[in-house]
Every structure is written in C-alpha cells, then in structure tokens.
Design a protein that fits this description.
- The chain is of the alpha/beta class.
- The chain has two domains: about 25-110 and about 255-330, D-Maltodextrin-Binding Protein, domain 2; about 110-240, D-Maltodextrin-Binding Protein, domain 2 (3-Layer(aba) Sandwich), CATH 3.40.190.100.
- The protein is built from 16 helices and ten strands.
- It has helices spanning about 1-15, 35-50, 65-75, 90-95, 120-125, 130-135, 160-170, 185-200, 215, 230-240, 260-265, 270-275, 280-295, 300-310, 310-315, 320-330; strands at about 25-30, 55-60, 80-85, 100-105, 110-120, 150-155, 180, 205-210, 220, 255-260.
- It is globular.
- It starts with a helix and ends with a helix.
- It holds the Pfam family OpuAC.
C-alpha cells in the first residue's frame, strides 16, 4: 500500500513546485529618450509588474544601440517602440537566428509623415486638402519675408526628412507654383510656426509627422498628392540624397514595432501575448503627447494619466483577470 502511495506523493510535490520555466521573472525594458517610447516603457513596466508578476526594470535606450544590444547580447528583453526600418536587416537577422521576435505594432498606424495644412483652412477652402488646390491658391501662404513668394515649411536642416521633403517639393512643382522652402532651424522652430499660425488663424503649409504633441493640440489635414504610395520610388529615390528625377508619392507609413528577445517570449508567453496586443493609434498617442507637453509630464506621470483616463483602450490588450489587477493597482498607485 505504501509503495503505491509514493508515485502519488511525488506527483503531488511536482505539481506544487512553481513553473519557473514559464514565470516572467526579471525583465529589462528599454526606456527610449522620446516621449511616446518612454510612455510605452512605463506602461509596460506597470502592467508586467502588477498584471503578470514580473520584476521589471527600465534601462536607458535608443534605437540603434538598443537594437544592436538585443541582437548581440540578448539585452534588454523588450524595446517597446522601435522604428524598425532604421535597422531592419539586423532585426530580421536576429529573428532568423531565433534571438528576437517582432511582438506587434506599437503604433498601429505606423509613423506618419506628410505635407499638412490647418483644418480651419480646409473648412474655409476645401480644395486645400489636395496638392492641386494648394498650388492654385499659393498666394494664401504668404512668405513672412517676401510678399511675392509663398511659404513651404520644410524639415529642419540635417534631418533625414529634409531630403524627402525637398525631393517631393521638386516633384510636385511647388517652386513653379510660387513656393519657397523655409528652413525652420529646429524641431521647436517648425512646431512653433504651426502654433503661431493656429493662434492667428493664418495659412500654413509644410512638412510634419505623427505621433506628436503638435498634432494632438492642433488639428491638421494631410494634403493628398493624388498619387497613392510608390514605396519603391520613395525608398530608392525620394529618401536618397542623390535623386535626379524624383516622382510624386505619398509618404508610406513607417513601421514601428515592439521587439522582444526570443528568451523572454519563450519564458513568459502570456506577457509576450500582452505585448503583441499593446498598440496605440496615432490619434490616441497624439492626445497623450499633447497632455504630456501641456503638463510638463514625464513618462511615469503620463503612464498614470493614460491608465486612469483610457481604460477603454488598454483593457482590450488584457484578459479580464489581468485588467482587474492593473485597475486595482492604478487606483492605489
């Protein structure tokens, strides 16, 4: 009788041992040095700790060093917001060698670029939603220093987007329509020109991108070039310094992913599943970024604001029992 009990006792003991191979354990998360990525890092830390029992730690990060470190060293475990085109070959190689995984899209719409005009202007002149309408009404966009010219606000000098904006300026025939490129000098100069135009309800036309606080605070309309997206032309010519014959194309969305190490994904499949579902629309992200700017908030403060004010968004990322744990934790944080 006692011999028949031994296997049962052994099995009972085995089942009582925690399944450490599937536990979340220690997790490192890259806290990138821009607001949307820092917000996501703090959200992931909070949800992984309070929803999945992870011991999560934020470490400083940036696109190239973080991606390279994940491929070569397996650290950090998670990069919440990686603009993957900038190191696509290295990431794909890491996935092929089973070192990394693409968890999901952290920005569901992708990074968005384009030429924009204020919404109030399109309400007054609906044709300004198209590039033909812009060119036909070029005189509305008065140059601040030359009344005989029209102003196009481009990307700051030295940024990669200065190349693409310049080539599209040429391809669209904007100089022939009377426009001159204005270099805003900096990101602050470019965003400040939009804010100034909005405050005065003046015409403004130029390059910008999303998600950003500016597009969260000021409603802007992306101008339709009527061309659709020619990704081959964009990659091979529009984004290249040497592009003798640029053709018209809308900006393709830039893929923005959450990347994890393979070891983390295998060790904590439920936590990985959360990361595969966690993603923001540009509209929601623009709103939170605008709140961060208005309140001079950091990533942690914005995390509290988001979890408190947007439960209809983040609860869709989680099973009901996990969402309940997170909700209880945020009320007492």
């Amino acid at each position: 009788m006692k011999w028949t009990l031994i296997p049962t006792i052994i099995l009972s003991c085995l089942f009582a041992i925690p399944a450490y191979s599937k536990s979340c354990g220690d997790v490192t998360i890259a806290d990138m040095n821009w607001n949307s990525a820092s917000l996501m890092a703090h959200i992931d830390k909070f949800i992984l700790e309070h929803g999945y029992g992870c011991n999560a730690e934020l470490i400083p990060g940036d696109t190239m060093p973080t991606g390279t470190s994940m491929v070569e060293k397996g650290q950090p475990d998670i990069a919440p917001e990686l603009w993957s085109n900038s190191l696509k070959n290295a990431l794909d190689h890491g996935v092929k060698e089973k070192r990394l995984r693409y968890a999901g899209k952290s920005l569901l719409d992708g990074g968005e670029e384009g030429f924009w005009v204020p919404a109030y202007l399109v309400e007054q002149y609906p044709e300004l939603a198209t590039i033909d309408g812009i060119k036909e009404n070029a005189k509305l966009f008065r140059h601040p220093e030359d009344p005989d010219k029209s102003a196009f606000y481009s990307c700051p000098a030295g940024w990669n987007c200065q190349i693409s904006a310049g080539h599209l300026f040429d391809a669209l025939g904007l100089e022939e329509a009377g426009f001159t490129i204005i270099d805003p000098g900096s990101s602050a100069g470019l965003s400040g020109s939009i804010a100034k135009a909005y405050e005065r309800k003046e015409a403004w036309f130029g390059y910008y991108w999303s998600p950003t606080a500016i597009l969260g605070k000021y409603k802007m309309i992306k101008v339709d070039f009527g061309s659709g997206v020619d990704e081959k032309a964009f990659v091979e010519c529009i984004t290249q310094a040497e592009c003798d014959h640029p053709t018209v194309t809308m900006y393709p969305p830039s893929p923005v992913h959450t990347i994890t190490t393979e070891k983390f994904a295998a060790r904590a499949p439920q936590a990985y599943l959360y990361l595969s579902k966690r993603g923001f629309t540009n509209t929601n992200m623009n709103e939170v970024l605008a709140w961060m700017e208005d309140n001079q908030a950091d990533g942690e403060e914005a995390m509290i604001y988001f979890l408190s004010e947007y439960p209809q968004v983040w609860k869709t990322w989680l099973p009901a029992n996990v969402a309940e744990k997170v909700e209880q934790a945020i009320t007492t944080y």
